[in-house]
Write a structure and sequence with these properties.
The chain has 283 residues and is of the alpha/beta class. It contains ten helices and nine strands. Helix 6 packs across helix 7 and helix 9 runs antiparallel to helix 10.
């Protein structure tokens, strides 16, 4: 039976544990998570293991990236199962602070990202989100001081925001994106998938199918606007409330009008009932 990872819950304990990990000048990779771990998270851990001598996983459900109307209180928390998964992957250290440790009384400094954080995608619908993400990830990077940090491509705008922040602030960490892990029917793995009813779960893969169909139209030479319109119709007809289906430049997330302006990333967000799903693919 694999040994449980070390668990640090305070910054001093974290620093002591990291000193031990780095005693032999081992490189350190960080995988930031909010827990409720699934196979997508495990794939991030495995990417981290390939690239560094020691792996640290943070588990922290960050309240500052949830709006008052969102699901912070009900966000799935599965500590025992998470611990078992990370033990099976032989993770060396889990950083598991509480809210008061991350945001002590009097906390008054926040990071306000621009660039890809104001691309008119997630930020249009969740204007609070990337400030919360940038602040907590900035804290995680300065607390753990990893050589490498691994993020999933499913949250593609977040990946671009974090990459830009680490570069702009000279944080000394290399941010790596890892491919989205999908169910057999194409649905991107997400901790929020547990909220879907059986019927909604049957419908949910339509997001991926619609993106693939629109991407194929673009590659075949169809105008981007027409290809996206066909994808939007497919998504709405399945019962989704669509927030956006966009084709953007894969690096800057700027709007893009033709295949020649690429590389292109197609991004989607839509609600199925009360559950909001996001996904993206390369074109």
């Amino acid at each position: 039976m694999p040994r449980n990872p070390m668990v640090a819950r305070t910054v001093p304990a974290l620093r002591r544990a990291l000193e031990g990990l780095r005693a032999r000048k081992a490189s350190v990779a960080l995988v930031p998570t909010m827990g409720a771990l699934h196979d997508g998270h495990v794939s991030l851990v495995r990417q981290a293991r390939k690239r560094a001598g020691k792996v640290v996983v943070s588990i922290f459900v960050n309240p500052t990236q949830f709006a008052p109307t969102e699901d912070f209180g009900s966000y799935p928390r599965t500590w025992k199962a998470d611990l078992e998964k990370l033990a099976a992957e032989r993770v060396e250290l889990i950083w598991h602070p509480d809210v008061k440790t991350m945001y002590p009384e009097g906390f008054a400094t926040r990071i306000s990202p621009e660039g890809p954080a104001v691309a008119g995608l997630e930020d249009r619908f969740r204007p609070h989100f990337f400030g919360g993400v940038a602040t907590v990830v900035g804290k995680l990077f300065t607390q753990v001081r990893p050589d490498i940090a691994v993020f999933g491509e499913k949250d593609f705008q977040q990946l671009r925001v974090v990459t830009q922040m680490a570069r702009d602030l000279d944080l000394g960490v290399r941010v790596i994106g890892s491919k989205t892990v999908r169910e057999r029917d194409g649905l991107a793995m997400s901790s929020r998938n547990v909220y879907l009813s059986a019927e909604q779960r049957r419908v949910a893969p339509t997001l991926h199918k619609a993106m693939k169909a629109s991407a194929a139209r673009i590659r075949a030479g169809e105008e981007i606007a027409a290809a996206l319109a066909a994808g939007e119709e497919m998504i709405r007809s399945a019962g989704f409330a669509l927030d956006y289906l966009e084709a953007r430049h894969a690096e800057t997330l700027a709007p893009i009008a033709s295949l020649g302006e690429g590389p292109i990333r197609m991004l989607v967000a839509a609600k199925l009932g009360t559950t909001r799903l996001i996904d993206n693919i390369g074109v």
